[in-house]
Amino acid sequence: MFLHVALAAANLASLASPPPATSTPSRQDQVVAAERAWSEAFLRHDLSALSRLLADDFVGIDGRGVVSDKAAELDEARPPAPGAPALVGEALSDVRVRLYGDTAILTAVNTARFSPGPGETGESTVRYRRTTVWVWRDGRWQCVSFHGSRIQSPG
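Below the sequence we write its predicted structure tokens.
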């Protein structure tokens, strides 16, 4: 009898316990996912996805020192002219995210691969450090600023 009562109590306790929580990505993981989604959308020339990821007041400064806004970034993401060098792959490493309320600062090393341009043979690779500022707006992370600095080869 005691065993039945103990089992019944255990069953009731398990019914009263909440189901295991499904894990939701941390805010840092969400920012990293948004950063990777930006890269993937750029490679696929997915202007709609890029438009959602970039804030209307986006300002970017690339590794050449060129300043751009959202419209310029979207224009650069369009498919290149035939034969023109094009970004064909990116790999992020050393990714770090710091949160300040609804603002996140992501730093990373980006290794970008480009197809050859006219008169060139083989892919070229460029490495740069990037800093991206993300803001939580309207229920999603949006990029408001980007800065890239090319990593010079020792020489």
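The helical segments are 2-16, 27-44, 47-53, 70-76.
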